[in-house]
Amino acid sequence: MADALNKVPGVAVDPSGNVTLRGRAVEVYIDGHPSLILAGDNRGAALRAMPSRYISSIEVISTPGAQFGSQGSGGIINLVTSHGLPEGHFGTVSAKVMSTGSYNANGFLNWHVGKLTASGFLFYNRTVADLPSSQSVATRDAGGRPLQTTESHGVSHSAAGSPNASGNFEYELGPDDRLRGQAGFMQMKSRSGGMTGYTVHSAGGLAENPYTDENAGQANMDSGTLGLGWTHYGKKPDETLKIDGILSRRQNDFSFQDQYSGGQQSFNAAQNRSETRTADITVDYNTSVGNDQLSTGLQLTQDEETARNSGTMAAFDSAFDYKQTLSAAYITYQKEFGDKWTVLAGLRSETLVLDTNLISSQTTGHVTDTRLNPSFFATYVISPKARWRFSYAHRLQRPQPRDLNPYVAYIDATHLSSGNPHLRPQETGAYEASYEYTDQGNNYTVRGFYNRDEHLITAASTAETDSAGNTIIRTMAVNSGTAMSGGVEVNANRRLSSKLYLNADITLQTMQVPDFGRSSSHTLTAIGGSFGLGYTLTAKDSINFNFNQIGKRLTGQGYMSSFAFDTLSWSHSVAPKVQMTVSVTNMLRMNKMSFVTDQTTLRSVSVTSPQSPTLSISLNRSFGGFVSRKD
Description:
Elements: H1 2-6, E1 11-13, E2 19-21, E3 24-25, E4 27-30, E5 33-34, H2 43-49, E6 55-61, E7 76-81, E8 88-98, E9 103-113, E10 116-140, E11 146-174, E12 177-202, E13 207-233, E14 240-262, E15 266-289, E16 292-311, E17 318-337, E18 341-358, E19 363-383, E20 386-397, E21 408-412, E22 415-418, E23 426-439, E24 442-454, E25 457-465, E26 471-479, E27 483-495, E28 500-514, E29 521-536, E30 541-550, E31 553-554, E32 558-560, E33 563-575, E34 578-585, E35 593-598, E36 602-608, E37 614-626
Parallel strand pairs: 4-7, 22-26
Antiparallel strand pairs: 1-2, 2-3, 4-5, 6-7, 8-9, 8-37, 9-10, 10-11, 10-36, 11-12, 12-13, 13-14, 14-15, 15-16, 16-17, 17-18, 18-19, 19-20, 20-23, 21-22, 23-24, 24-27, 25-26, 27-28, 28-29, 29-30, 30-33, 31-32, 32-35, 33-34, 34-37, 35-36
């Protein structure tokens, strides 16, 4: 699924599973609802595990309306699962091996008989990776003169296994009623290890206090989801009532140990455990009012988490619990003005009640927050082939409860992190205007966008010194001020000939972000985009090339460098229902990522270089078919 998302204009999925739209983080939904399986640290493994055949379409909602939750400053990507297929059955089995030692296998089945439609998939993914990295951390005095520089170089190795199972069904209770359900389970077990060498340089450049860190860790994650829904179709053609309930549960267990030798002799081991439970109920009603459309709904979401951290360093032991309840109501109204204009206006009210308890220090917190989030959309039809679209939406990026936890977490010998109990929600006003043209299957779009972020949430780093005189970086999320970004995006999807297909997009945007710890702001103009070509060689063979460029981004205390990834693939039909695909990924070797922190008293440069290029070979076997009925 991650490969399919990377082919969507403006969308990028990095190796960690972070999904962005034009460089901004987005929420990922399944069938219009948030999914715990696709949340947080699980997202990368889940996206790799989900076969694209399980998804019928991908909806990119850059300015979501009032019917969607307001969380997420960058918008929503909604993965729509397969529904409403003709009677019969269809399925696939496939396997893939990679030159890195990674492999996966999956099976998918969709079945429609009479009143019942059901689909599901089973998947196992094994990922093996070696990741070289380096970092330079320099502290400076108020005048910018160097005080101490720490250089590090290392290689980490990781191996993870992840079984995944998911399915859904829909049953026709009667001519006006449908019952549907879903279930999903995902497990991931991983082990990692590596060695990093550190060298500390004094202000005069003299190397001193070299040491090494040999580390090992293992992580176990289990998550599951159960959902049930009912749809009733009213007497009016557009009248529907939908009620959905979803229960989710996730467990994480992570442990690691660090053995330091050389100038710094020490040993540290720690274990972090957490369990998250979520319950979500939504009610949505849609009806026509004359020639207009009215939609309204309610949402009640409750989630709670327990987290326990322990280890050899008692200062980092903690016990943290939270419980939060989100209550929401929305209304939208759509009206047509003549033959040209269609306008949709909406308003969403959300109230969040959050209670936190840092048991280890007997510190409790309580937050009650109510927000009104308006939205507006308008479409002007120029001709059957062309139209204008205009949109506005007010979005929020609320801090995660653990971001409010003041507990100090140990990362490694030179890095700590802590929460910020004073962190406020980030508020975003998103504006868009686009021109769309479609002719004989060819699509062209020119889109202008502008985003204004108030109370921007920034990961801020500060330098500290430990008892041995070494530099320690502590990272904490803060509200750094107001940020703005805007630009133009151009998309083209065109069949150049009966055998050649092109899809391309390019985004030019300017961003202004306040500098953490300074009264100034940084301004940057960056270019990003993607390019894809598909060519049919013969009736059995085709080749595809995809290239995705992620533009340079400001972070509030520095920047992330530009990087790119590419895939060249050849597909061959071995038999009528058997297909083989050979792919080479990152053959241009442009996937190195650099993260730079540049402050008055601290400069840090971190570089990661994923393995490249990589070769993969996959086989896919489809079976079954659907019944064609004649009236």
